[in-house]
Design brief:
The protein is α+β, with helices and mostly antiparallel strands. The protein has one domain. The chain has two helices and two strands. A two-stranded antiparallel sheet has the order 1-2. α1 runs antiparallel to α2. It is elongated.
Length: about 70
């Protein structure tokens, strides 16, 4: 299996996940206040939306890379 097919499979999987979930979320922690040895930390949950066109483009691009004939 060559590198082109591996990249194609990765794009297919990433595109399918983008279409199913529509994005991902993560938690960001920051220090709100620090008084002497005491710290007040705040956690904020952020959401990143992946556009529908990006998921479709990844699936199509991955499919093309997987179906392309390899070099001989």
């Amino acid at each position: 299996m060559n590198a082109t097919r591996i990249v194609g499979i990765v794009l297919l999987v990433a595109g399918a996940l983008a279409l199913v979930y529509g994005g991902f979320s993560y938690t960001q922690e920051e220090t709100a206040a620090k008084v002497g040895p005491l710290e007040l930390k705040v956690e904020q949950q952020e959401r990143v939306n992946i556009p529908l066109w990006a998921g479709i483009a990844a699936v199509l691009g991955g499919g093309v890379l997987v179906l392309l004939p390899g070099r001989r």
